[in-house]
Amino acid sequence: MELSLSKLDSADQELVMAKLDENLRSAYEKYKPVQHPTAVHTLPLSTSVLITGIPELKESKGYFSGMVLVPVGKAFVPIPISDMYQVYEIRDEKSDEKLIIAISNTSKKTLQNRVTVAGVIKELKPQKDKIIDAGQYLEVNYFTAL
């Protein structure tokens, strides 16, 4: 909702918010995403976050380990999780925080310009043989080019 509202002027934003009933407005305020977080790595898992910046493509193989079983016909085929995501590093323009973001390969788009991404904080479990900082990443649900 934040990404949609960001494209509107303040009068239209207020008009949309006025249309929400009290329960919906309360839920919206409770689960509203954190914008431009200053301490990303201290946020609880499953926190919704909005970050604006220019993403830099990274090699996904070092960030994600494990397999996902994908149904093919009557059998399940194990697919490495790293083959399912495009991994980027993004620095938020306002807070100057860096964060790893992962976008499903099904999006078919490569992020190259300034974007706002919206997603959920997840736990990063790197492969044992790779030397990277373990921590958190943002699983991107939506993004918009600016």
Describe this structure as you would to a colleague.
This protein has about 150 residues and is an alpha+beta fold. The protein folds into two domains: about 1-30, no CATH class; about 35-145, Nucleic acid-binding proteins (OB fold (Dihydrolipoamide Acetyltransferase, E2P), Beta Barrel). The protein contains three helices and nine strands. The strands form two sheets. It has a seven-stranded mixed β-sheet with strand order 1-2-8-9-7-6-3, with no helix packed on it. Strands 4-5 form a two-stranded antiparallel sheet. A hairpin with a 6-residue loop joins strand 6 and strand 7 (about 100-105). The chain is globular and about 50 Å long.
Quick structural summary:
With 146 residues, this protein is of the alpha+beta class.
Notable characteristics:
single chain; 146 residues; alpha+beta; OB fold (Dihydrolipoamide Acetyltransferase, E2P); 2 domains; globular
